[in-house]
UniProtKB/TrEMBL annotation:
Organism (species): Alkalicoccus luteus
Lineage: Bacteria, Bacillati, Bacillota, Bacilli, Bacillales
Designated name of the protein: ROK family transcriptional regulator
Pfam families, alphabetized: ROK (PF00480)
Family: Belongs to the ROK (NagC/XylR) family.
GO BP annotation list: D-xylose metabolic process
Superkingdom assignment: Bacteria
InterPro entries: ATPase_NBD (IPR043129), ROK (IPR000600), ROK_cs (IPR049874), WH-like_DNA-bd_sf (IPR036388), WH_DNA-bd_sf (IPR036390)
Job of this protein: Transcriptional repressor of xylose-utilizing enzymes.
Keywords: Carbohydrate metabolism, Xylose metabolism
């Protein structure tokens, strides 16, 4: 039995009700009492408060067999909005969703600078622009969560962003003073893992997502919670060494996984062998569709190197669900089957290995979901998009 002062218990009950209303989409007061164990008086008082705050609204049930149709409660998804941002080299992807996780806008902004202060200026201007755009909602633009392609500490400071060359930046305090809504900063792979849990794999309490893009990052859900490690730096799987004394890496080591199994390494080494200065995604897709032998050889090598790293990851963490986020793998019809064929260990297995259906939006979807959970102050969130 949970005990505490009245204000604390009231806050716990509020969170419990908001979680159930959010998860169920539509639920009656009687059903709320049954699933939460709260008495009718508590339900009545809490619901009245939430209605007054315009966080929920009432509708009549559409179909009901006998007697009066019950009044159903739902989250007022249009009461406010949240902003997610994926800050990467050369671009920022912005995503706004309502309180039910529905997409309102998704916009990519190309940026031509890597200068820290210049990027902060762009972020500040854009956040204030979006804040103004959604100001008419009851709660306006509530907060923003920004994904960083690098190591972010538990107190939301940047240790290192390899692609931008940023080291030891107090990004939260530097940007928070320039905008009018609360900010959260998190590693992009952590946000992607959170998105997979909230939107796609809601029953999986042990989930790992591995993002194969310009580098390799991973996020972990363990016992239903995001696992970030002692300092917040967990998940840097791309810097696991798979070939001792192999290709040099920006991290200072040699033979790192991402030097062999990131999409950028795949593109670079394929272009080099073909004598091209660079290859675009459509170029590579066309080569694979045409059955180009060099492209096929590099795809074989790519899948083998992805599998080597995944074998280590599975043995270390024993995830129930392993989600791979990769455009290149999606171009190979049997990529997942081939990876599974390479994972023959009798020591540790994974119940599900799949490609992400969220793709390049996983970070911003996770960012918006985290902002929604923070605003509603609930312990668990389930959304559809």
């Amino acid at each position: 039995m949970i005990t505490g002062d009245a204000a604390y218990i009231k806050q716990l009950n509020r969170g419990l009700l908001l979680r159930e209303i959010s998860d169920q989409k539509k639920i009656s007061r009687a059903a709320l009492s049954k699933v939460t164990g709260l008495n009718k008086a508590t339900i009545s008082a809490q619901v009245a408060q939430l209605l007054e705050e315009e966080l929920i609204y009432e509708t009549e049930a559409e179909h009901y067999a006998v007697g009066r149709r019950p009044i159903m409660l739902s989250i007022n998804e249009k009461a406010g909005y949240v902003l997610g941002a994926d800050l990467d080299k050369g671009a920022i992807l912005y995503h706004v969703s309502d309180l039910a996780g529905n997409t309102v806008l998704n916009e990519k902004k190309i940026i031509e600078t890597e200068d820290y202060e210049a990027v902060l200026g762009i972020l500040a201007a854009d956040i204030e622009m979006y804040t103004s755009r959604f100001a008419e909602a009851t709660y306006g633009l509530i907060r923003a969560t920004i994904g960083i392609h690098g190591t972010v500490s538990n107190d939301e400071e940047i240790l290192f962003v390899p692609k931008l060359g940023w080291r030891r930046k107090s990004i939260k305090s530097d940007l928070q003073t320039r905008v009018s809504i609360p900010l959260t900063f998190e590693n992009n792979a952590n946000l992607s893992a959170y998105a997979e849990r909230v939107f796609s794999h809601q029953q999986s309490d042990h989930l790992m997502t591995v993002i194969l893009s310009s580098g390799i990052g991973s996020g972990m859900i363990i016992h239903g919670e995001l696992e970030k490690g002692h300092h917040g730096y967990a998940g840097e799987m791309g810097h696991m060494i798979i070939y001792p004394e192999g290709r040099p890496c920006k991290c200072g080591n040699s033979g790192c996984w991402e030097r062999y199994a990131s999409e950028s390494s795949f593109f670079d080494h394929l272009a080099e062998e073909l004598g091209e200065s660079r290859l675009t995604a459509p170029d590579v897709q066309q080569l694979l569709e045409d059955g180009n032998s060099t492209a096929q050889k590099h795809m074989d090598s790519f899948i083998r190197n992805v599998s080597i790293g995944l074998n280590n990851v599975i043995n270390l963490y024993n995830p129930e669900t392993l989600v791979l986020n990769s455009d290149v793998l999606s171009w190979c019809p049997r990529a997942i089957e081939r990876i599974k064929d390479n994972l023959v260990s009798n020591v540790s297995t994974c119940e599900e290995i799949c490609l992400s259906r969220l793709g390049g939006n996983s970070c911003v979807l996770g960012a918006c979901a985290l902002s929604i959970q923070t605003f509603l102050n609930i312990s668990h969130l389930t959304l559809s998009n």
